[in-house]
Amino acid sequence: MIVRARVVVTMDGAPIKNGAVAVSGDRIVDVGKFPEVSARYSGQKIIDLGEQVLLPGLINAHCHLDYTCLRGKIPRQKSFTDWIRAINTEKSKLSPQDYIASIREGFAEAKQFGTTTIANLTAFPKLIRQLPRLPIRTWWFAELIDVRSPSRTNELVDSAIESLKPAQNYGLAPHALFSASKNLYQRCEEAGKDFLLTTHLAESREEMEMFRDGSGPLYEFMENIGRDMGDCGHETALERFLKVRDSSSALHSARNDNDWLVAHLNELTESDFELLEKVKRKFHVVHSPRSHDYFGHSPFQSERLHRLGFNICLGTDSLASNESLSLFAEMRAFQRSEPEISPGKIFEMVTVNPASALRQQNTLGRIRPGFRADLTAIPCRRGRDLFGGIVAFDGEVDWTMVNGRTQSTQSLAADSV
Ligand SMILES: [Zn+2]
Question: How far apart are CA 1 and CA 23, in angstroms?
Answer without folding.
Answer: 5
